[in-house]
Design goal:
The chain is of the alpha/beta class and about 170 residues long. The chain is about 50% helix and about 15% strand. It has two domains: about 5-65, Arc Repressor Mutant, subunit A, CATH 1.10.10.10; about 95-170, Rossmann fold (3-Layer(aba) Sandwich), CATH 3.40.50. The chain has a four-stranded parallel β-sheet. Strands 1-2 form a two-stranded antiparallel ribbon. It comes from Hypnocyclicus thermotrophus.
Length: about 170
């Protein structure tokens, strides 16, 4: 799922590189040149940036105090949302693991070492929850009475084929 680019992304780029073409802004943000143009106009209208003509072909974007305030506000909102999602995932992991432990299941983590793995392992360690960790689906055959926790949807079909009980720790409801 691709994240939606908004004014804060443009403000972030402009803060780091005030003398930048709209084409370069388009490349860095991953949105069309037309969308960049609209966002720049929106930022100017809202008072987030000022445009200074350096010559006939080059402009300098200046972040205003209001633009800095908006960028800070959006960054804080992003941090709060991320923190809430981590807390939500933490609670989900604890609830699921308690259920599976009460069913005498061995919890097996299957996935690459990424941020999600780090969150799950930290939750397990802080709550003294035992688990096993594997990187390859072939290693599952060495376990009995297991529940596999994963988060990469590409693995789901393989787990179904092997008739292994699993839960997508991100997408499945508790």
């Amino acid at each position: 799922m691709k994240r939606i680019v908004d004014e804060s992304d443009i403000l972030e780029i402009i803060e780091k590189e005030p003398i930048i073409s709209q084409r370069k802004l388009s490349e860095k943000s991953g949105i069309s040149l037309g969308a960049v143009n609209l966002l720049i106009k929106k930022c100017v209208k809202k008072g987030f940036i000022k445009i200074e003509n350096l010559n006939s072909r080059t402009v300098k974007y200046i972040l205003t105090p209001q633009g800095i305030k908006e960028k800070t506000r959006k960054t804080l909102k992003y941090i709060k949302n991320s923190y809430n999602l981590i807390i939500e995932l933490n609670n989900k992991i604890i609830k699921l693991s308690n259920k599976h432990i009460s069913e005498n299941k061995t919890i097996v983590l299957l996935g690459k070492n990424d941020e999600i793995m780090e969150i799950i392992e930290t939750t397990f360690k802080l709550n003294n929850i035992s688990y096993d960790k594997i990187n390859n689906i072939k290693d599952i055959e060495y376990f009995k009475n297991i529940i596999v926790y994963f988060w990469n949807t590409e693995l789901e079909e393989k787990l179904k084929e092997k008739n292994i009980e699993y839960i997508n720790i991100i997408n499945d409801k508790v």
